[in-house]
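Quick sanity check, Leucine aminopeptidase 2 chloroplastic:
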Amino acid sequence: MLAEEASKITSTFSDVFTATVLDVEKCKELKMGSYLGVVAASANPPHFIHLCYKPTDGNVKRKLAIVGKGLTFDSGGYNIKTSRGFTQISLSVNSMFFPFSQVHFIVAACENMISGTGMRTGDIVTASNGKTIEVCFFFNLL
């Protein structure tokens, strides 16, 4: 749904907006293991969205990137969150927009679900930059 909205924005405002939407196969090709680890248990396909605004005059003085984690649903994983944990999550997805010359909106839209294909505490995933990440759940600390 978010990918469809990005496409609508670029169709309506094609003079200033472009969009790139990566599907799961492209994310695999780019070795986006940390992102793919989060989406592994979801029955719904992820969409890594890059929406770019450029002014019509082409005079770009500054660039700004706004990156959102884009969880459309977060089950809490195997370490189910308490209501207090969910409150903390809502604080982490709020962001503010400042009107600079060129703006990139990047959203890793996906679900974090539970299934036999999902990550577990202790799993290690490899990010696209080659760094390895051990999966642990910090919401117990809240």
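Posting the structure with no commentary besides this: Residues 2-12 form the longest helix (11 residues).
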